[in-house]
Amino acid sequence: MRVVIDVEAQAEATEAALFYEHCRPGLGHDFTNAVEDGLRQIAQRPLLWRRFKGRFRRYVLRRFPYAIIYAIEADRLYVAAIMHAKRKPDYWLTRVSEL
User: Does residue 92 form part of some domain?
Assistant: First the structure.
């Protein structure tokens, strides 16, 4: 299934990777790998993760306090957010027209 990542979600992932890289060289790369691995797993088995809000589901990254918020649509998976799990959990709702 094709994965479409919201522009703001991509920016979140980039910002987090840069933050982790600043904390410790190589850690940003590890974060990016964790996100890519999560996206691969979601694409392979999109129904495996529980509903989070309305039609959206949540995949929690291992090792990092982030989650991938996505929805299954007719011909694609839409990633609405790559959000920090401990900060403002509903901020991404402004990006979607319906739950």
Answer: no
